[in-house]
Each structure stands twice: as C-alpha cells, then as structure tokens.
Write a structure and sequence with these properties.
Length: 127
C-alpha cells in the first residue's frame, strides 16, 4: 500500500491522520460559525450575540474556504464521500458501515481513505 502513496514524503501516517481529522472537525464547527455570522448580518446585527474570546474571524473564514477547496478539488467523488461520511456527518459512522454502504471492499476502502487523508493534508500544506 505504501508503494501506491510513494509520491508523498516519508512521514508519520498516524500523525498526518490525527492532524487532518482534527482540522476536519474544526472545519465542521467553523462552517456553522460562518453560517451564524451570515445570519446575524442578514438580520442587521453587527458583531456577535455571544461573548467572544478570540478575534480570529478572518483566519477562520480562510480555513473554511481552503478546506472546501481541498475537499472539492483534490478528492475524487468516492474519496469525498468517505471523508463526509466518516468525519463530517452529524452521526458517528464506523468504517465497516461506510464501506458496505459504498459497495467497496475493505482493502479498497482503506486505501481510498488513506489517499483522501493525504490529499487533504497535501492540499492544506500540512505535508
């Protein structure tokens, strides 16, 4: 399997996966934050209705844009489905259910998932 991903540098796969998964979870929250901000603007409310500890709106906005670009432009349809079902769904899904739902064999599923994680990491400049 590592021969198929040889175009990626030799790095700790577990560390890459951990970082990407953490960023995908943040992306989910930041996407909601962006929708909330838009809703406030549409209602004519400037600022925030909740206490705000950090002033990082621009950074968060850029993270959402760049994550969406990575998801939409670097992954094929099946890789994107795997990432959405595994990490962006509101319900926690296990790998077995995902690869059965997608009609994939176990090995093919894990190869696709690994490639998707590495493509996201590469697209975001993590690796």
């Amino acid at each position: 399997m590592s021969a198929q991903l040889s175009f990626f540098p030799d790095i700790n796969e577990k560390e890459v996966r951990s970082i990407v998964v953490k960023e995908l979870k943040k992306y989910k929250a930041l996407k909601i934050q962006q929708q909330n901000k838009l809703e406030l603007n549409e209602k004519g409310i400037q600022g925030n209705i909740f206490p705000k500890l950090l002033q990082n709106d621009l950074e968060n906005e850029l993270k959402v844009i760049q994550m969406e670009r990575a998801l939409n432009n670097s992954l094929d349809q099946q890789e994107r489905q795997i990432i959405e079902m595994k990490y962006l769904s509101t319900e926690r899904q296990n790998d077995l259910n995902i690869y059965l739902d997608l009609g994939l064999q176990k090995t093919a599923y894990y190869e696709k998932k690994k490639t998707a994680i590495f493509m996201i990491a590469s697209s975001l400049g993590i690796i």
